[in-house]
Amino acid sequence: MVGVFRRSLSFPNKNPNRPSQKPHISHHIRSISLPCRSHPLISEIKDEINGLRSWAATSKAQQQTSTTLSQGLTLLKDTHETLQHILNLPQTLESLRSHPLWLQNLLEDFLRFVDAFGIFQTSVMALKEEHSSAQMAIRKRDDSKVVAYVKAKNKISKEIENIVSVLRCVSLAQHQQHCTQQAPTSLVDAELRHVIADVMSVTVSVSAALFNGMAASFASRRLSWAQMVKLSRKGGRVKKDREGVEELRERDVVEMENLRNLKKKDDEEVRLILKKMRDLEERICAIENDTEKVLRALINSRVALLNLLTLTQ
């Protein structure tokens, strides 16, 4: 027996006196594709670039210490770690895909950064070894080895200062011209290119300030007899007329010992010198560790660029 199915009609339940739930839209409807907002990493790296520029400006205005050198290295490391994350974004691949020549220039300049900080790290390690040997010489009251330490320290300081010449080969003008002359394909493309160019520029300026500051901090200076007397009376510190800036710091202790006979000093004076030398060694070790982190960040950024180059080919 076949069942009988009744046909039913359904009408919309609308009240003619009630306005429609979706009123008629007479104005222009915008497209769903809104302007692309900046990626959070772009805003983050812009703040880090401004922090590096402030550090560089401050380092020119006042004498650098091991603390400020470590601070600059840490800021540079953080900036390049953020850049590495940006280089791994899909937007970056799309942006650099159409700029293979610029990508090649970035790779060459990052190689120069890696070379410069590799040499810098080697120099800092050599300085630490010489500093350890000098402490042993002071314990033994060996003036000849202290003199050798001062000479070796001066040589290392000059080597660090010469690293700046490697940075002069970085084509900053070419990076800036690429941002201004090449028409961007999108807002994201323009932002990425300007950010990368700014990172290259600030890396050069901050690295030069770091190398020059390190060379100046550990270079030997000749002390006058009046300065030596003041240094011995004030426990190793003499102030400049300008308030808050130290003219003579812990590093001047070794120069002073170079002019005087260690064998004529009593045990308390030697202990004071060794304490200052140990404190300075800790600061050198901190700079060495921070330099290693910067070098690792630069290498990782270059690896990210190499990956982009592989994907664009």
Automatic annotation (TrEMBL):
The keyword Coiled coil applies. Residues 10-20 have a biased composition (Polar residues). Pfam families: BPS1. Keywords: Coiled coil. Residues 245-283 form a coiled coil. GO terms for biological process: root development; shoot system development. InterPro entries: BPS1_pln. The keyword Oxidoreductase does not apply. Residues 1-27 are annotated as: Disordered. This is DUF241 domain protein.
